Amino acid sequence: MFDPETLRTFIAVAETGSFSKSAERLCKTTATISYRIKLLEENTGVALFFRTTRSVTLTAADLSVFL
């Protein structure tokens, strides 16, 4: 299972739609948020977020887990 900090990171990114806003909310660096999401995606074998230069959104696979 995933550690609580990784799950908090996932939820923050899903709610804010932004790595930088999630970093502010969790008092972490943007690099830390990005790294945790990357590890989560590698561990699940699924792309959890669709990334653009301005935002991130849940993928269809991820949306079913989040809801």
Write up this protein:
This protein has 67 residues and is mostly helical. Helix content is 64%, strand content 9%. It has a single domain (4-66), classed as Orthogonal Bundle (Arc Repressor Mutant, subunit A). It contains 4 helices and 2 strands, in the order αααββα. It has a two-stranded antiparallel ribbon. Strand 1 and strand 2 form a beta hairpin. Helix 1 packs across helix 3 (30-44). The chain is globular. The chain starts with a helix and ends with a helix.
- The CATH first-level class comes to Mainly Alpha
User: For the CA atoms, what is the radius of gyration?
Assistant: 11 Å
- In the CATH hierarchy, the architecture is Orthogonal Bundle
Total separate domains: 1
Which structural class fits the helix and strand makeup? Answer: mainly alpha
Characterize the largest beta sheet: strand count, sense, and whether it forms a barrel.
2 strands, antiparallel
Strand share of the residues? 5-15%
